Amino acid sequence: MPEAMFDRIALIGIGLIGSSIARDVKELGLAREVVISTRSADTLKRAGELGLGTSYTLSAAEAVEGADLVIVSVPVGASEAVAKQIAPHLKPGAIVTDVGSTKASVIAQMAPHMPENVHFIPGHPLAGTEKSGPDAGFIGLFRGRWCIFTPLPDTDAEALSRLKIFWEALGSRVDEMDPQHHDKVLAIVSHLPHIIAYNIVGTADDLETVTESEVIKYSASGFRDFTRLAASDPTMWRDVCLHNKDAILEMLSRFSEDLAYLQRAIRWGEGDKLFELFTRTRAVRRSIIEAGQDVDVPDFGRHALDKKA
Ligand code: NAP
């Protein structure tokens, strides 16, 4: 077993992200002790059954006692409440980080409560699925994926470097960004696509001229790809929308303008405009594959379906 990087890690929240971290930490032997805390007795019990940690408690305050690294993996709207609970119990010198999908809001909620003698370093692993809960996690979720840190101006360089080494051990590529910039980038690459998916699936669900059975039956076309995103956790995505409001609204208004352009091109039969856009967007897809952020095979469950057939 490799030498443990931390004596004690406390995981606050043990859903998809928390439990994936727990599984990797165990597999890689990155900590001697892993204390797990979550809000509900049912989730805590399940984490125990899955053997995700070395001890378990419903009290976040108790969990962080003596921990060298604390990772908060709860919906972003719960960040302040968690920060208040853990703050008086943090070990001096501890690193406190999070995995929240929005950063400016998490910093505003957590930073004011953090004692001066701990290192609060906000983070966001760009990895996930549409599933939630402790059963949804798996070893290797973060492998080859980016983890972005949005350090505060006074963040200790050594603590940041230690946290980066931890995420690199999980297989992540690490980067740093200003929190506002992070929120803008994520608004376009993640938040807007989810909102569009929620909207299109909602529209299809509302259509009276097309029955629900037709929507399901013929979903092998483009619609199916949207349903995967639109199946994402409602609590998490409600919080993302409410806590990255400005950047999302800015991107939505850009999106609406561009959609109006597309609408007009279709109405007036401007095929050259459509062709130019569709050619440009195809090149974006190629760049993503070349950057190793996806593979050039249709997926979204089709592989598993093929195997089943
Ligand atoms: P999840 O699977 O739904 O798990 C959420 C965890 O937070 C559970 O342990 C849950 O506890 C706890 N929790 C829920 N509401 C809470 C509250 N009000 N107060 C305290 N604890 C609460 O969520 P997840 O997908 O792991 O997401 C966790 C964080 O990671 C979110 O901030 C999300 O933005 C971020 N993130 C998610 C993804 C993704 O694709 N899912 C990717 C990157 C980052 P109980 O079950 O005990 O109620």
3D structure, described in words:
- The chain has 13 helices and nine strands.
- Helix content is 51%, strand content 13%.
- It has a six-stranded parallel β-sheet with strand order 3-2-1-4-5-6. The chain has a three-stranded mixed β-sheet with strand order 7-8-9, with helices on one face.
- Helix 4 (79-86) packs parallel to helix 5, helix 7 (179-206) crosses helix 9 (223-230) and helix 7 packs across helix 11.
- Helix 6 (157-169) links the parallel strand 8 (146-149) and strand 9 (173-176).
- It folds into two domains: 6-177, 3-Layer(aba) Sandwich (Rossmann fold), CATH 3.40.50; 181-308, 6-phosphogluconate dehydrogenase C-terminal like domain (6-phosphogluconate dehydrogenase C-terminal fold).
- It starts with 5 loop residues before the first strand and ends with a helix.
- The radius of gyration is 21 Å and the shape is globular.
- With 309 residues, the protein is α/β, with parallel strands linked by helices.
- The site of NADP nicotinamide-adenine-dinucleotide phosphate (NAP) has 28 residues, from helix 1, helix 4 and helix 10.
